[in-house]
Design brief:
Layout lengths: L4 H11 L3 H20 L7 H10 L13 H9 L3 H8 L12 H21 L10 H9 L9 H11 L3 H12 L12
Helix pairs in contact: 1-3, 2-3, 2-6, 2-9, 3-5, 3-6, 4-5, 5-6, 6-8, 6-9, 7-9
């Protein structure tokens, strides 16, 4: 792999001035690194899965109308076709086929990671006390984190062939080692 994590982080910081979207990107990176071991081919997939998570929304803040075309083109120019394809497919309504475990994992992890983060913000203890059943209950409440597209979460778990609660547990577990860094703990 030619692209390094440091180069990816630098691009994210250059293109994404807002801390909230950078924090989301970092959280998805963390989950995707774990997803490489669960849904990918193992350790050799950790870097590409992590970079896909880190960069999936890199162009959104500055160029929302072009999202994800700019980051996809940037990656393609650098020979990162697999990461570019996964990012081009991380929203079902774009109609891009899901060809690889990387494609499916990014769809399954992106929206759910953001939703889990939202659940942490309203829960005493944040991620430390969060359980899948609480997340499932919040998913049913359409007024909670209303901008989160529940159909994207459903599509992702179906593509992975996993149960929703099991995937939520996976996301929570993946985030726990970095919970403090990501602001997911509450006093």
């Amino acid at each position: 792999m030619a692209l390094t994590r440091e180069e990816g982080w630098q691009l994210l910081c250059d293109w994404t001035p807002g801390a909230a979207l950078r924090n989301h990107a970092r959280a998805v990176e963390v989950v995707m690194r774990a997803a490489a071991l669960r849904y990918g081919a193992g350790p050799q997939d950790v870097e590409p899965f992590g970079l896909a998570g880190l960069l999936h929304d890199a162009d959104y803040e500055q160029w929302p109308a072009d999202h994800p075309k700019r980051i996809v083109a940037w990656l393609a120019e650098r020979g990162e076709a697999a990461i570019a394809h996964a990012i081009s497919a991380h929203y079902t309504k774009w109609g891009v086929p899901y060809e690889t475990p990387l494609d499916r994992a990014l769809l399954a992890c992106d929206e759910l990671t953001g939703f889990v983060g939202a659940c942490c913000l309203v829960r005493p203890g944040g991620l430390a006390t969060l359980e899948a059943k609480s997340v499932v209950k919040k998913l049913k409440d359409k007024s909670f984190a209303a901008k989160v597209e529940r159909d994207e979460i459903d599509a992702g778990v179906k593509l992975l062939g996993v149960e929703l609660a099991a995937h939520i547990d996976f996301v929570i577990g993946a985030l726990k080692p970095c919970a403090a860094e990501l602001g997911l703990l509450r006093p």
